[in-house]
Amino acid sequence: MKILAINGSPRRKGNTTILLHELLQEAQKAGALTEEIYAEELNLKYCRGCLRCNLIKRCAIRGDDWNRVSENIRQADALIFATPVYFRHVTASLKKVLDRFRSFVHVQITSDGLQHTPWQQWEKKFILITCMGSPDPGEAKPVVDLFSFIASILGPDNSIESVIGTRLAVPEQVTMTKARLSKLYHKLNISGELVETDYARNRMILTTCRAIGRNLVLGK
């Protein structure tokens, strides 16, 4: 199995990156070939909305990394997207990548809206990992909806699974001990009564990412 991970986090030790690496390490142990791309390190130009991809069945923009990245995307059996939530959306570097996904589909304007037809029907597993400082997982809904939409238009046999980390604002917070979490909450003026619950939740989300990594390869 080939797994391609696109990391939209600017933090190499951030919670989003930690969760992604937990998943990838378990997938590697189970025998997967994995590749991680940091979105902000890519030489990518912005999608211009020129619509030429409707005619030539590929992105018309040349002279950047998209040709290589898009080929890796096509070849992957599973795509993992990792991003913190910024203003209820993905990071700018990841959005630049996602906008270029437009070249994977033909878009037709109809009287009822837009009709998206992929050049090739994908059958891939999509995994979304996202973290945010808010305690409300509902604030990630715009991000989850975006990836659900992308997975759906690229083929009816695609699947998507989401992992949402909440109240995670400080790097490495998801791996903190109860003692460190208690000190952090005191510093941030967050009720200490939340430490026990949040610590357990953080342990669970780490376990969930590991399980997803294994199950991607083992087919569970």
Account of the protein in words:
This protein is α/β, with parallel strands linked by helices. The chain is built from seven helices and seven strands, in the order E-H-E-H-H-E-H-E-E-E-H-E-H-H. It has a five-stranded parallel sheet with strand order 2-1-3-6-7, sandwiched between helices. Strand 6, helix 5 (141-153) and strand 7 (159-165) form a beta-alpha-beta unit. It is globular, with a radius of gyration of 18 Å. The model has no long low-confidence stretch (mean pLDDT 96).
Summarize the entry for a quick read.
This protein has helices at residues 15-29, 53-56, 66-75, 92-99, 141-153, 178-187, 195-218; strands spanning 2-7, 33-38, 78-84, 105-110, 113-118, 125-131, 159-165. The protein is α/β, with parallel strands linked by helices and 220 residues long. The strands form two sheets. A five-stranded parallel beta sheet has the order 2-1-3-6-7, sandwiched between helices. The protein has a two-stranded antiparallel ribbon with strand order 4-5.
Keywords:
alpha/beta, 7 strands, 220 residues, globular, five-stranded parallel β-sheet, two-stranded antiparallel sheet
Which helices and strands, and how do they pair?
Blueprint: E1 2-7, H1 15-29, E2 33-38, H2 53-56, H3 66-75, E3 78-84, H4 92-99, E4 105-110, E5 113-118, E6 125-131, H5 141-153, E7 159-165, H6 178-187, H7 195-218
Parallel strand pairs: 1-2, 1-3, 3-6, 6-7
Antiparallel strand pairs: 4-5
